[in-house]
Amino acid sequence: MSVDLTRPEVDRPTYAGTLRRLRSAQKSNRNVQAYSRWVNRPLARYLAAAAFHLGLTPNQVTLLSGGLTLGAILTLAVAPATVATGLAVSAALVLGYLLDSADGQLARLRGGGSAVGEWMDHMIDCVKTSSLHLAVLLAMYRSFELPGAGWLLVPLGWSLTAGVVFFGFMLTDQLRRNGLDPSAPAPLPADASGTTLRSLLVLPTDYGLLCLVFALLGWHDGFRAVYTGLLVLYTGFALAAIVKWYLEMAGVDAARRAGQAGPQVKA
C-alpha cells in the first residue's frame, strides 16, 4: 500500500529511502517488454525520486515528458536527417520515455494518481503515436535518397499499425477496468508476473527499442533497413494481439450471457 509522503505528519525520507519505497511499489511485469522492464522502469525510479524531492507533481513530470517527446518529433520533421539529428532525437525520445514512466511511479509514491493525470498521459501518448512516424515520413522524403517512392509507405504503415495497436490496447484495457470480465485473474505481484523469455520475445513491440533506432537516422540505408524490419515484426505481433483481444472480448460476452441466464428454477 502506498503512503502519501506529501502529508506534513509523515517524515520526508532521504533520496535513498525514496528509491527503496519506489522499488516496493512497482507495477506488474506481466507482458512487459525487455527494454521497458529492465532499462526504462529501473532508471525512471531515479527520476521519480528526484522529482519527488524537487517537489514536482506527476502532472508536471508528464508535461516534461510530453515536451521532450514532441520536441524530438518536431526536430525529426524539420531538421536534416544527419548523425547529430538522429542522436539528438533518440536521446530526447529516450529521456521522454523515462519521464513517461517516472510520472506514474511518482503518483504512486505520493499516494495515487488522478483522472486528470491519466487523461494527460494518454493524450500525450496519442499525439506521440499519431505524429512520430509522420515525422519519419517527412525526414525520409526530404533527406533520404530512396530507391523508389514506395519506401514512403513504410512510415505510413508504422503510423497505421501503431495507431490501431494503441486504440486496441486502450479499449481492451478500459473494458477490463469496467468489470466486464468476471473471469479475469487477479493482478500478479510485480516480482512473480512475467517471464524473462516473454519479455525478450515481445521486445520488437517495445517503444524504448524504437527510440534507440533513431540513433541510426544519419546512416540512411541502415536506418531504413532496421526501421522497416522492425515494422514487419511489430505488425506480426499486432495481428496476434488483435486476435487475442477479440477472443478475450468474446469470452467476456460469453461470461455475461452465462451470468444473465442464471440458475433455472422450476415452478
CATH architecture: Up-down Bundle
End-to-end CA span: 50 Å
Write the element-wise H/E pattern from the N-terminal end onward: HHHHHHHHH
Helix content: 55-70%
Main sheet specs: none
Q: List low-confidence stretches.
A: 181-193, 262-267
What fold name goes in the CATH topology slot? Four Helix Bundle (Hemerythrin (Met), subunit A)
Give the overall silhouette: globular
What is the number of independent domains? 1
Strand content: under 5%
Pick out its properties.
disordered C terminus; Four Helix Bundle (Hemerythrin (Met), subunit A); globular; mainly alpha; 267 residues
What does this structure look like?
The chain is mainly alpha-helical and 267 residues long. 70% of the residues lie in helices and 0% in strands. The protein has a single domain (15-181, 193-255), classed as CDP-alcohol phosphotransferase transmembrane (TM) domain (Four Helix Bundle (Hemerythrin (Met), subunit A)). The chain has helices spanning 15-23, 34-53, 58-78, 83-109, 115-143, 153-177, 196-201, 207-213, 220-261. Helix 3 runs parallel beside helix 5 (115-143) and helix 6 (153-177) runs parallel beside helix 9. The relative contact order is 0.13. Mean pLDDT is 87; it is low at 181-193 and 262-267.
